[in-house]
TrEMBL record:
Biological process according to GO: cobalamin biosynthetic process
Role summary: Catalyzes the synthesis of alpha-ribazole-5'-phosphate from nicotinate mononucleotide (NAMN) and 5,6-dimethylbenzimidazole (DMB).
Active site as annotated: E326
Cited HAMAP family: CobT
Gene designation: cobT
Pathway given in the UniProt record: Nucleoside biosynthesis; alpha-ribazole biosynthesis; alpha-ribazole from 5,6-dimethylbenzimidazole: step 1/2
One Pfam family in the UniProt entry: DBI_PRT
UniProt GO MF annotations: nicotinate-nucleotide-dimethylbenzimidazole phosphoribosyltransferase activity
Protein name: Nicotinate-nucleotide--dimethylbenzimidazole phosphoribosyltransferase
Organism, scientific name: Salinisphaera japonica YTM-1
Catalytic activity: 5,6-dimethylbenzimidazole + nicotinate beta-D-ribonucleotide = alpha-ribazole 5'-phosphate + nicotinate + H(+)
Enzyme Commission no: 2.4.2.21
Entry superkingdom: Bacteria
Species classification: Bacteria, Pseudomonadati, Pseudomonadota, Gammaproteobacteria, Salinisphaerales
Enzyme class, first EC level, given as a word: transferase
Annotated keywords: Cobalamin biosynthesis, Glycosyltransferase, Transferase
Amino acid sequence: MTQFTQTPDLAWLHVPVAQVDTNARAAAEARQAQLTKPPGSLGRLEQVAVDFAGWQGRSVPAIDRIGLAVFAADHGVAAQGVSAFPQSVTAQMVANFAAGGAAVAVLARRAGANMTVVNLGTVSATAHVPGVINHDLAAGTADFTEAPAMSQATLAKALAAGAHHVAPNLSLFVGGEMGIANTTSAAAVYAALAGREAATVVGRGTGVNDTGLSAKQTAVERGLTRHAPAWAGQDQANGTQTILRCLGGLEIAALTGAYIAAAQRSVPVVVDGFIASVAALAAVRINPGVADWLVYGHRSAEAGHAQVLADLNAHPLLDLDMRLGEGSGAMMAVPVIQNALALHAEMATFAEAGFA
Ligand SMILES: Cc1cc2ncn([C@H]3O[C@H](COP(=O)(O)O)[C@@H](O)[C@H]3O)c2cc1C
Ligand SMILES: O=C(O)c1cccnc1
């Protein structure tokens, strides 16, 4: 098991992403025009098939290997009363992922995805159960209202850990997250990245009451005030890394690293909800080409997700009022993608069906 005992170099973040094959896209568009249906009648499903053609470099793409990595970590900011659940739930859920009882585990089984559960750093040993990969980068993050969430070395390790879990031969990658209080961390990262007011980016997460919501807003404001000087004057890529270091979570940074690595390895990504989309925004700010390799699974009910999606010019496949995380919204979209590719591959053309 990779323990990331050395601090990884961060130059890899800027390696250009893989090229999308525009010829394969054009061939897939031509095929769509010949299938036995009115042009455009399969709506966004047509676009999905064309996108995968470009990603896979063939006019008739197929999904063979689905990789799902669920990254878990504790958050020091949980001490600010920002979640409806105690921090210990993170480690308990790690065991539940490994046992196959979590929502995303059900969806992974149904879609035929290979699920990896990655504990990046929790304060409780409950997360150290069979079937879980433990990287133990740190005992969670520090409370960002009082200190930077993590050191530069831990950030580098978390980004590399995320990349480590994207196999180059995947047809698609889904990243999930688990970390009580991470909607607060994601809101803070988003507010800093996009220059938003705390009040417009915080939502109820696991279902906090008004007191909890107000505690989230205060925590985000305090985090921004305390740490903004650290990224002031930095360029976009360095500023984004500083924002992740000061306000992020180990699992959020891992998602960012995973998305960048996926785009470099020609692996398309299905992005999940609010937290995953904030990680995607960070990835695009660090390496803009990453945007070409992302498809958005769903619109989360978490306040703030709609804004992040708009900033990414993203149009998610589903809108089911889900607000769970774990990668569950992305995994719900995977069967839609599988069906889009099956229609593209298996429908008859007008010529094959003998239309005059
Ligand atoms: C049992 C349980 C299972 C979950 N699975 C994902 N989350 C989700 O909720 C957390 C974020 O919400 P907040 O910021 O309000 O704590 C994350 O861990 C997220 O993935 C869960 C939360 C709970 C309680
Ligand atoms: O959209 C999400 O990612 C989300 C929303 C609420 C709780 N956990 C995750």
